[in-house]
C-alpha cells in the first residue's frame, strides 16, 4: 500500500501549485441561465465582456473586488463549468443571494452549516464543501476542503495508508464524517510539511493512479 507521506509521493504533492489550479468557463453557456434567474449583474461582473474566464483556486479564495454573490457564482461555475446534472444549476442561480449569504456566514459548526445549505434543493456534500472551502470556512479547527465523489472513491478503495482512519466514508455518510475527513487531511499535511489542499488535489487528480 502506498503512503502519501513517503518519497516520492510526498515530494510530488509538495510540488503541486494548487493555488494555480484553474477551470475555464464560457460566458455564452451561462448567459441564458443567468438572465432567466435575474443574475445578469453577477454574470457581467464575473465575465466582464470576455467570452471565457479562467477561474483559479487562488482567485476563489481571495475573490478580489467582487460581491459575495459574484464570488458564490464563481465557485459554482468553477465546480460545474458545463452545468450540474439535471439542470440543478438553474435552482442554484435562482437562490444565489440566499446561498451566498449562508455559505459566507462565519462561525457555524459544520452540522449547522451543512443543514443550512442542504435546505436549498440540489446542494449536496460535493457542492457544499466547495462553498465552504472557497469561503475560507473552518470546522473544529480545520480549514474546509473539497470532498467530492472522486475523492470519496479514492478513500473507499483503501489504498493510501494514511487515509485508514476514514475507512467506511461514503457518499451516504460523508456529510456526517466531513469533520473527520478534515482532521485526517490536516494530520497528514502537518506530518508531511505540505498543505491539506495540496493533498486534496492530489487525491482528486492522481489518487487512483498509484
Which terms summarize this structure?
mainly alpha; 210 residues; 7% strand; 12 helices; 4 strands
Describe the overall structure.
With 210 residues, this protein is mainly alpha-helical. It has one domain (9-206). The protein is built from 12 helices and 4 strands. The strands form 2 sheets. It has a two-stranded antiparallel ribbon. The longest helix has 19 residues, at 174-192. It is globular and about 50 Å long. The mean pLDDT is 96.
Short description:
This protein has 12 helices and 4 strands.
Portion in helices: 55-70%
* Major sheet strand order: 1-2
User: What average pLDDT do the residues reach?
Assistant: 96
Tally of structural domains:
1
- Provide the low-confidence segments as ranges: none
Structural class: mainly alpha
Beta content: 5-15%
DSSP helix count? 12
- Gap between N and C termini, in Å? 9 Å
Number of strands: 4
Write the H/E string, N to C. HEHHEHHHHHHEEHHH
Multimeric state: single chain
The whole-angstrom Rg is 17 Å
Q: What is the global morphology? A: globular
Taking the sheet with the most strands, its summary is:
2 strands, antiparallel
Amino acid at each position: 500500500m502506498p503512503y502519501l507521506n513517503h518519497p516520492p509521493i510526498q515530494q510530488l504533492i509538495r510540488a503541486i501549485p494548487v493555488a494555480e489550479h484553474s477551470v475555464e468557463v464560457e460566458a455564452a453557456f451561462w448567459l441564458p441561465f443567468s438572465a432567466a434567474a435575474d443574475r445578469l449583474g453577477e454574470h457581467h461582473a464575473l465575465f466582464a465582456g470576455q467570452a471565457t474566464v479562467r477561474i483559479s483556486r487562488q482567485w476563489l479564495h481571495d475573490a478580489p473586488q467582487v460581491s459575495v454573490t459574484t464570488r458564490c457564482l464563481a465557485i459554482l461555475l468553477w465546480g460545474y463549468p458545463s452545468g450540474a446534472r439535471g439542470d440543478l444549476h438553474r435552482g442554484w442561480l435562482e437562490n444565489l443571494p440566499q446561498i451566498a449569504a449562508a455559505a459566507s456566514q462565519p462561525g457555524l459548526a459544520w452540522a449547522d452549516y451543512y443543514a443550512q445549505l442542504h435546505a436549498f434543493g440540489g446542494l449536496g456534500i460535493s457542492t457544499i464543501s466547495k462553498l465552504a472551502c472557497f469561503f475560507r470556512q473552518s470546522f473544529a479547527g480545520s480549514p474546509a476542503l473539497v470532498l467530492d465523489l472522486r475523492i470519496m472513491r479514492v478513500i473507499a478503495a483503501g489504498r493510501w495508508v494514511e487515509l485508514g482512519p476514514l475507512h467506511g466514508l461514503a457518499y451516504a455518510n460523508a456529510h456526517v464524517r466531513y469533520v473527520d475527513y478534515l482532521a485526517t487531511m490536516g494530520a497528514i499535511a502537518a506530518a508531511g510539511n505540505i498543505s491539506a489542499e495540496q493533498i486534496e488535489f492530489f487525491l482528486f487528480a492522481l489518487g487512483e493512479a498509484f
